[in-house]
Amino acid sequence: MALQDFSIETSGLTKIFNGKTVVDDFSLQVPRGSIYGLLGPNGAGKTTSIRMTLGIIDPDQGSSTLLGGQNPASVRHAVGYLPEERGLYANMKARDIIGFLGALRGLPWKEGRRRGAALMDEVGLDHAIDLKIKNMSKGMAQMVQLLGAIVHQPELIVLDEPFSGLDPINQGRLESLVLREQQRGATILFSTHVMAHAERLCDQISIIAKSRLRFQGSVDQARALLPMQLSYAPRMKDRLAEQEALLPQGAIWRSDRWHFTMAEADIEPLLTRLLATPFGIAGLSIDHPALHEAFVHIVQQAETDDGNLRA
Amino acid sequence: MKMFFWNSITVARRDFMAIVATPSFLLFLLAPLFFMGLGLFSTLGSSSIMQAERNKEMLAVVLPHQELMLAKRSDDLLRANMAADSQPLRIEYRVPPSAQPNYDAIFNQSGRERTAMLYGSLDKPQILDRRRDSRSGEYLRLLARQAVLERGLGAVKTPTAELRVVPFPASAKNGHDFNSAKMIAMLSITAIFMLTLLIVSQATSGIAEEKANKVIEILAAAVPLESVFLGKLLAMMGVGVIFVVFWGLLGSLGGTAFAFSQILSGDGAALQGAALQAPLTHEHSLTQNVAPAVGWAVYSLLAMAYTICTFLLYGSLFLGMGGLASSPREVQMLSFPLVILQMMAFMLAASSVAGGMDGHMGLLAQIIPFTTPYAMLGRAAVDSNLWVHGLALMWQMIWIGVMINLSVRLFRRGVLGSGDWRFWRAVSR
User: Fold this and answer.
1) Per-residue pLDDT tens for B365-382?
2) Do A100 and B14 touch (CB under 8 A)?
3) Which end of chain B is more exposed for a tag (fewer CB within 10 A), N or C?
4) B292 near B299, Cβ under 8 Å?
């Protein structure tokens, strides 16, 4: 893939604070125009990775390229960023602060204020346009900060834990906003530890745990790391020992159904076998594991690997 | 580079508005008024205490009636020729209560504190004094002599001398009054020092506040930290300009109002006369004589340039320190050594102005970056060479760049835990 097809490319970013490696060999490729999720438990190194990627802090090793520019500073005007630690000037009005944040990225103040008003209207906060930040709820202020991050219509939007602290209504608004920005042509990278958002929004995800990237790919690929979850109801409710022998190890009989997991590729041969027996198939449900389970699996695996390495 | 300045202006504009558009700015603007009020109050207080003390003390003249009247006339005459601040104590006039009065008893009579007393007769005056050679005793001696003279002169008219004003010839470099120029230098650097002291120290709390409200990460992500720092310095300078303009206007208005009040109250004739006639009759006008060596216009420009340099230099230092503070207590603790440094720089520059710019101290003050603006402004007052100012301003620009850079490095290291504050390491990367 050519260089310009990625909005973000990092290679081997490493950061050490006080002798402790907080991010180790962080290499990421975020396709242009995609919504990319950076997932990880608390303290995994997501925020430090984002800060290094954006050039806010210098890495001890490695390099990053944003929008094809070798120096992240050279493309600042085309980047929008919502930091994890929310902060706004308490005495400024929403309209003014959005204008100011736009001006920092090169947008004329007047235009920023105008666009700010339109964006506030769009997310249903038109009544708060002239409200000072100190008089706003936390969620409202967070939405204002987010609007300030996108008011200059950046090519790349980086959101660090954007959903935390928002109520379900505002989370929905934010999801719509993210999708709208993607439709406009922007690339969005956001970090989260809430899987539902990533599952609904992301084209690609990375999972970071114990300071290292443990997974990169699509949500489906992440789910595919775990076996499928099957629930099988036979036509006969007796001769359970014979039935169990046909099923994978660990199958559990509960509520007149067998519950077990198995690889996707093995499902069809099993069904063929079952149909050929007198037990037949009275009911069957096949579920992909949720991203949440894949995430837990990857993180636990990382902890085990880390433990093994230390041992 | 254009984007860098745009960013700086953006930060400056926000900071400036955030400072100016608050009620507390009015308090800041009027702060000197509080100081002046406090000064006036304490001056009035102490002078009224002194006046009360003075009112209790008095002189006494105990003479026969005729001589007493003569002494009183002479006293009026003498007092009329004395400046207000050198007037002697009030006099209690009394005729002797008996043919053989006890003067010591009169002198020590309760109710008044008599510091000296004239008694006897004008031909043979006697003086009682609390101590030898006191000013009060001297005055009574003079009064007795004057009264005798008045008595002898009778109605003889004394001539009035004609006055012609001829100031001292010019003795400073380039034909200017050297001492006046030094005074201008001292006043200017004191003004810059005070203004900088008042405003620049706010930078520490400004950046600490930015850290506390977490905006700094947004700024650091959006624009180079150098332009954030420069923007903050520019905003502070804007505040300084408002301050100077406000007090300048107030001063001008006060001066104009005073002039008008003088004209209206009758002293106007004297004022108008002085204003109209002074350039014609004086051999040197005041403005010609009391002027900096480089002339007022260039001096004003240089004063402005050096004020800006002082702001930027000390401001960046304060900003760097502010980046390390995380609470108001730390802000105070970190600001204190810098204020001391500022005061030391001012004292070095002031002593170099007093001692001469060509001495070791003077040269040192002109070279050390933190004293350069003060010392060079002092030099502009007494030396008309302009090229040295070009050199000094370039020297200052270099140091402002270095200081902003170092402060940013300190900030990145201290707050963002990133980058290397050691200059040579950062440069070599």
Assistant:
1) 889 999 999 999 988 888
2) yes
3) N
4) yes
Task: Provide CB contacts within 8 A for A10, sequence distance 6+.
Answer: A26, A27, A28, A49, A52, A53, A62, A63, A64, A65
- Domain around A260: 228-287
Closest partner CB to B18 (pick from A17, A89, A104): A89
Whether A151 and A243 map to the same domain: the answer is no
Give the residue with greater pLDDT, B232 vs B198: B232
CA gap B407, B10 in Å, rounded: 20
Q: Domain for residue A305, yes or no? A: no
Residue numbers in A near B216 (CB within 8 A): 87
Contacts with A227 (C-beta within 8 Å, 6 or more apart), sequence order: A261, A262, A263, A264, A289
| Mean pLDDT, 10 residues at a time, chain A of 311 residues | 73 89 92 94 91 89 87 85 87 92 92 93 89 90 92 94 88 91 94 88 92 91 87 88 89 91 88 89 88 89 69 43
What pLDDT is recorded for position B280? 43
Q: Does A225 touch chain B (CB under 8 A)?
A: no
Report how far residue B93's alpha carbon sits from residue B69's, in angstroms, rounded to the nearest whole number: 9
Mode of pairing for the β-strands spanning A283-287 and B113-120: unpaired
Q: Where are the alpha helices (DSSP H) in B175-295?
A: 178-200, 202-212, 215-222, 225-262, 268-281, 286-289
Q: Name the domain boundary from A223, A247, A271.
A: A223
- Candidates B310, B308, B317; CA nearest to B408 is B317
Within a domain: residue B161?
Answer: no
Give the integer Cα–Cα distance in Å for A202 and A35.
Answer: 5
